[in-house]
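To the wet lab folks,

You asked to see what we're planning to order before we commit. Fair enough. Below is the target structure as tokens, and below that is the sequence we designed to fit it. If anything looks off to you, flag it before the synthesis order goes out.
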């Protein structure tokens, strides 16, 4: 009696995964598309971020978006811009398979603080503020591309 109970329990444990597999396959339904919600502002936000990077050979730009409900001043927006510019430029350099060392680190900090400026951009959305942090220097892209060679 005990051995037959063990056999039944073993069979149940062996069949249980099969039952779950079959039930999950049978219950799959095609995904129904979610109707678009109000995307006003979201598309604009994505468009803003598309304007990042080298605008031309002399200007590198990052976009800083700050929520309107938080208290920010232009100095904190500038600090956020500097941080984003550093990270973006570091990523730009490392994606070119260049070694990022302390000389490049110091160069970026100097370029960002010396040639960077923050500009508030008019935004149609009242829930956030939009700033551009531009680093403008003659031949900036060529200088950045020459780093780490």
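Sequence we intend to order:
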């Amino acid at each position: 009696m005990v051995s037959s109970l063990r056999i039944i329990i073993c069979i149940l444990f062996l069949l249980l995964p099969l039952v779950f597999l079959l039930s999950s396959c049978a219950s799959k339904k095609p995904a129904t598309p979610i109707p678009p919600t109000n995307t006003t502002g979201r598309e604009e936000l994505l468009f803003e971020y598309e304007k990042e990077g080298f605008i031309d050979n002399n200007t590198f730009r990052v976009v800083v978006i700050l929520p309107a409900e938080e208290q920010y001043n232009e100095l904190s927006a500038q600090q956020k811009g500097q941080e984003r510019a550093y990270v973006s430029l570091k990523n730009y350099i490392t994606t070119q398979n260049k070694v990022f060392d302390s000389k490049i680190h110091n160069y970026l900090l100097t370029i960002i603080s010396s040639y960077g400026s923050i500009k508030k951009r008019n935004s149609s959305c009242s829930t956030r503020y939009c700033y551009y942090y531009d680093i403008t220097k003659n031949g900036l892209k060529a200088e950045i591309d020459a780093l780490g060679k």
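Structural context that might help your review: The beta strands are 53-56, 59-67, 116-121, 128-136. The CA atoms of residues 4 and 10 lie 10 Å apart.

Thanks,
Computational group
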